[in-house]
Write a structure and sequence with these properties.
By secondary structure, the protein is an alpha+beta fold. The protein has 2 domains: 3-78, Alpha-Beta Plaits, CATH 3.30.70; 100-211, Sulfite Reductase Hemoprotein, domain 1. It has helices at 3-9, 29-37, 62-71, 100-110, 172-189, 196-203, 205-211; strands at 12-18, 46-47, 53-58, 75-78, 121-124, 138-143, 146-151, 164-170. The strands form 2 sheets. The protein has a 4-stranded antiparallel β-sheet, with helices on one face. Strands 5-6-7-8 form a 4-stranded mixed β-sheet, with helices on one face. A hairpin with a 5-residue loop joins β2 (46-47) and β3. The radius of gyration is 19 Å and the shape is globular. Mean pLDDT is 91; it is low at 1-6.
């Protein structure tokens, strides 16, 4: 069997590529050039609503591909039943004022964690809510120097709804604690392929409020 035949039969693994948390969802020319080196000419690239690009690479080349993409500032995540990378606003009033460092750290803690059903988090740095935190599974809104967490929002479908305020007046460290515990509870108690909003309805919003502690 030839090398080409071997490659054609090798399993392809999907990867979610994200440009990282910054001023808008932007890619540099260098990032695009490196990305193109890892995509076959006949392969389509899917752009998702969560500012991710889906590509497929040969299983034997996954780690090398991730290494080269991360070297030019791209983040790589698994595709499937995982927490998506954090959808953000454009930080139009500035990185510090709108809490970009907090968004970066929040994404680092959340993205890629295995969950019963893909979980979509969103962040916005001011009450304009350009990151649409109220219509995603977990939404974070920065209000002056503190943070609010909303859960259970849905943008589509017959049960579309806005999220409910879960916690407010949080410091960055308290925000991390709340989100981490919410994901842990979902991982431990969610049923297979149970959406986060349905998990909240079944498990109980008030029950979640009781179990999530702030140190």
């Amino acid at each position: 069997m030839t090398h080409v035949e071997n490659q054609s039969q090798e399993k392809r693994i999907p990867l979610a590529i994200h440009p990282g948390i910054g001023f808008g969802a932007k890619l540099t020319a260098k990032q695009l050039m490196v990305l193109a080196q890892h995509v076959a000419e006949d392969t389509e690239i899917e752009l998702t609503t969560f500012q991710q690009l889906y590509i497929e690479v040969l299983e034997s080349k996954v780690e090398q591909t991730k290494k080269e993409l991360e070297a030019v500032g791209l983040d790589c995540y698994p595709v499937g039943l995982y927490v998506k990378s954090l959808r953000t606003c454009n930080f139009c009033q500035g990185a510090e004022e709108e809490g970009m460092p907090v968004a970066i750290e929040l994404n680092r803690r959340m993205a890629g964690r295995e969950v019963p059903f893909p979980l979509r988090p969103a962040y916005t740095g001011c009450p304009n809510a350009c990151g649409e935190p109220l219509i995603n599974d977990i939404g974070v809104l920065k209000r002056k120097e503190h943070y609010e967490v909303y859960i259970g929002g849905q943008a589509r479908g017959e049960d579309a709804t806005t999220g409910l305020l879960f916690r407010d007046q949080l410091t960055p460290e308290q925000l991390y604690q709340v989100v981490d515990q919410l994901i842990n509870l979902y991982q431990q108690n969610g049923k297979k392929r149970e959406k986060f909003s349905r998990f909240i309805n079944r498990y109980g919003f008030e029950q979640l409020q009781q179990e999530v502690k702030i140190g």
